[in-house]
Amino acid sequence: MSDKKVEKCGERCALQEILDVIGGKWSMSIIYALFSGKKRFSELERLIPGINTRMLVKELKNMEANGIITREVFATVPPTVEYTLTTKGEKLEASINELYKWGMEYVA
Amino acid sequence: MSDKKVEKCGERCALQEILDVIGGKWSMSIIYALFSGKKRFSELERLIPGINTRMLVKELKNMEANGIITREVFATVPPTVEYTLTTKGEKLEASINELYKWGMEYVA
DNA sequence: CGGAATCCTAAGCGATACTG
DNA sequence: CAGTATCGCTTAGGATTCCG
């Protein structure tokens, strides 16, 4: 069914893109974890308590589709996969840190 | 139905609070609209194309419960209700503007 | 005007078991 | 290790109607 990717639609679309990237329950946690450098799948699973395999996979795929992370596969045994933020992804750092600070400040 | 409000739970909770506030489909649009000052219900409805009554009401209630907006009722005929950002709400401006810029920059 | 009530569908999310 | 495949539940969200 259709490309799933948002077409050029100007201002009103920016919010959509933002939500698609950070609106998921685990999105920000994952991005946050990747700010400190590339991580393997299992590392992310450990770093993010409460997440399950399915959601991690799903979010990672979504992020890759949105161009904010890169997936690198190494043909080792056992297999190794590393996830890294793209430039686009890194540029979220300032915003997310600000949001995070806001959240911390106001969590009663 | 429990209190719906998140209890003090430290760092991991900040992200939850953030998502509860800006994670809804229309949340940021509403907050955005309120950055330019207090608005009436019907104004918000006009300013945000595509939203419907139910969702606007729902989001506004949620935001009020989260302490980011204030609801003021005037006993006029016909009734008047005005919504304003609280300080907590206003402090989101920087973050959201940053996010918005990010979105605009990367909408293909 | 500013909602509340109702109904309904699509999407999000969680748990677990299985596989190359 | 890094996923896929199923299943089922719970929300979010949309359309519409009614009310003080």
Please tell me about this protein's structure:
Two copies of one chain form a homodimer. In chain A, a hairpin with a 5-residue loop joins strand 2 (69-74) and strand 3 (80-85). Chain A has helices spanning 11-22, 27-35, 41-47, 53-65, 87-90, 93-106; strands spanning 39-40, 69-74, 80-85. Chain A has a three-stranded antiparallel β-sheet with strand order 1-3-2. By secondary structure, chain A is of the alpha+beta class. Chain A starts with 10 loop residues before the first helix and ends with a helix. Chain A contains six helices and three strands, in the order H-H-E-H-H-E-E-H-H. The first copy, chain A, has a single domain, classed as Winged helix-like DNA-binding domain superfamily/Winged helix DNA-binding domain (Arc Repressor Mutant, subunit A), CATH 1.10.10. The interface between A and B is medium-sized, with 35 and 35 residues. Chain A binds a DNA duplex (20 and 20 nucleotides) through residues 24-26, 40-42, 45, 52-58, 73, 76-81.
